[in-house]
Amino acid sequence: MSETDGEKVVSINDLEFEKNVSITGAETPLKDLHKPKEKKEKSTKTPKEKKEGVVHGGSGPAGGAKKKEVKKESGLGLAFKKEENFGDWYSDLVVRGEMIEYYDVSGCYILRPWSYAIWEFIKDFFDKEIKKMGIENTYFPLFVSEKALNKEKNHVEGFAPEVAWVTKSGDSQLEEPIAIRPTSETVMYPIFAKWIRGHRDLPLRINQWCNVVRWEFKHPTPFIRSREFLWQEGHTAFATKEEADKEVRAILELYRQVYEELLAVPVIQGVKSEVEKFAGGLYTTTVEAFIPTTGRGVQGATSHCLGQNFAKMFEIMFEDEKGERKMVWQNSWGLTTRSIGVMVMIHGDDKGLVLPPRVAPIQVVVIPVPFKGIDPSDECLKVVHQLQQADFRVKADLRDNYSPGWKYSHWELKGVPLRIEIGPRDIEKKQVRVVRRDLEDKAVGRSQDIPVADLVERIGEILDEMQKGLLERARKERSSCIATAYNWDDFMAALNNKKMVLAPWCDEVAVEENVKARTKCEGDGGGAKTLCMPFEQDTLPVVQDPLPEGIKCFASGKPAKKWALWGRSY
Ligand code: 87F
């Protein structure tokens, strides 16, 4: 770290994360987590003949008459249990599930094809929807000049320690350090001022898919908190506040759809408090998810109305129909790869990832179960072809050095929604066995025999059912984690019982700050804050809108102005 002109300049190579307590509860440095297991894996990877009968449509050893070198199905299980050690379970899962590879720059992760494909589904959906709304994609530079970055003081204040700067090229010091974008308001708005002249230039609505860098010092967690991440950032300018307000909610609705309809993660929509809103803006709306295992809320995405703050600073003006010069109204909104981490945390179990069908890179894996020298690989390929024709994402695992049981565990670890097993007896009966990833081993309906003739139709139905079922299950659990409290004691009890708490609130900054401080020492974990003031919605039946007459703030005892949803959070 060095100092120039009183400005802190962080050389991005110098820094190490503080070894804080992990936000997931893990204190083990992440880089050490996988070392012992790597060793273990090697030892179990010695090819051995498979003994147990995992075949159906017959019994006996896989591979039939010829003894094949096949891998045992042991050694694939996760090293930690979700309920017992959530932090380590998660870190282990994203690596073993082949979503993440660790990297030698702290806080940066490699997104492997298995997780990048999920990001592409999110991207494809959202991109198509915003284009329908008339928003255009663009690309602005990664670098920000110091002058531009510091133009809007409110905006950078508080964030400054997280800005990474480039100070050198080769051996020579740059004349002026340049920042790496932590977000692009200050990159884009000088250009907005140039592009917008008259009312006919409005609205201006652009979006970019890119990476940003925020040099976080809290414990990093794959997807959830990393120093570089991927996102989309939308930036728009309007002639009127009404248009801006309308867009804020339209974008928030798309974020809800990404979470609920793609990732099967229930969210609560609402508006942020003064403390929690984006300081550079007028108001911030949010979709908030919740991780029941840790009892923490997690901000899913935000859609801000910036008001005219940036227009003032960057002089983004237009001439209206009457020839008067006016400032534009602006919005900005963003959704990041954090969404993938939230989905993993909510649906994953002790066997691995559980991917909702709409974002599963492979929806169906077809596994041959050889018996008595009969190899069903050709039938597997036929089924793959049949399902591919119907646009399912499907793959056959025909590797002959792994047993069927090993493959079952492998694809369960990766979270593939359905597996199809085909053995000789299935071929005779013109059927296949279909096994669902989302149901427990012994659950009714987890495994069913389906005639090949009905396969396309039934697979479609089952995947739809799974998609809906995952959201319903998560919503039920989430809803059971919302408590209401009218006084401090009930509030603390609920919070320490891993709940979000809906409480009548006076809406005062000092009170929120006080609650944060008091919950830090009185309970375990970090301080509680407002997650949002939920919009009226049927998923939250406890919200009574308007607030009952004469009701007091749970924390200050002053007259309450609104319902606020409180919680510990990521
Ligand atoms: C970190 C360093 C510098 C968040 C930062 O939410 C600046 C910032 O402005 C910063 N972290 N923010 C707020 C970002 C606001 C807004 N930008 C466009 C979004 C969505 C996309």
From TrEMBL:
SMART domains: ProRS-C_1. Residues 29-54 have a biased composition (Basic and acidic residues). It is an enzyme of class 6 (ligase). Gene3D superfamilies: Anticodon-binding domain, Bira Bifunctional Protein, Domain 2, C-terminal domain of ProRS. Residues 27-69 are annotated as: Disordered. The lineage of its organism: Eukaryota, Viridiplantae, Streptophyta, Embryophyta, Bryophyta. It comes from Sphagnum troendelagicum. Keywords: Aminoacyl-tRNA synthetase, ATP-binding, Ligase, Nucleotide-binding, Protein biosynthesis. Its EC number is 6.1.1.15. This is proline--tRNA ligase.
